[in-house]
Automatic annotation (TrEMBL):
Protein's recorded name: Nuclear transport factor 2 family protein
Organism, scientific name: Sphingomonas canadensis
Signal peptide positions on this chain: 1-21
Keywords noted in UniProt: Signal
SUPFAM superfamilies: NTF2-like
Domain (SnoaL-like) ranges: 57-152, 209-307
Pfam families: SnoaL_2
Amino acid sequence: MRRWTIAATIAGIALAGCAHAQQAPAPAATAASDAEAAHRAQTEATRAVAMAFLNRYFIEHNFGAYAEFAHPDFIQHNPKIANGVAGHRAYFAKIFGAPKPDPAPPPPRHVTDMVLVDGDLFSVMHHSVDSTGAARLFVDIWRVADGKIAEHWDVIQDIPATSAHGNGMACGNYETWERAQAWADSIVNPTCGRPDPASKRADSLKTFQDYVAQVGAGDVFGAIERYLSAGYRQHSPVIGDGKQGAIDYLRREWGDLSGPKPSLGPQRIVAEGDYVLVHYILTDGATGKQSAQVDVFRIRGGQISEHWDLKQPVPEKTESGNPMW
């Protein structure tokens, strides 16, 4: 388990005559300390549910895990699946019940890339590869309430055969059938590495928020220079590696400053250690079409050292009636 080290708030010591008296903590400091302690406790309670569920679901391949770990009527945001355990069961029964070729191909290989836990949310980046080499990258987010999964979102994107760099969309280049077969899937040893326990969530969030604020103020290239590290590593398949890759992409996509700009909806953030995962809906300024998107940033030394992203078009309607966000 990952636990963040939070420095205790120390009250000042005042000298009164020849005796030392301890001052009472300021109310704001006490409230902040209490909030951090409550968040830490909630995170660890969520982690217990997350790791048990993920082990059953991803490692043991037990698709009945939802019946054990989720509320029967949990809220579903995957556009193809209805609400609740029954909706999840019906969706996978349809997939597994579909006619299979003879001889049947081997089952796809599954690789866990990243596991994050934050408050009442936990998230996993993972990918699958079938024997033909077709691969897909997933980010799933779950919300836990009263010890059970209460809500689920996901974003899914096919991994293209080629990209603007050689880093892969995930980590470790386990995106081919041969490489995925050689990897022993693990939720405690994901390919991107576990969150750094020496990195504080609050510091990572601040770096991300400062970067976004500078970009939002219009100083895009200044933000890249200030907040992207010298060895910045890119995983988006359409953006070149390094700072220059980010600059070239922005010039290509945003060169016409007079054109309509996309708008971003509210952000759902899952942050742990040196990772900040952001989930949102983007609306194209020209067409009005929407996509569900996830960006993940790795923060090292006050700078962004690595970036991943996924995009999935939002359909006109969903099986559950719930939006993708």
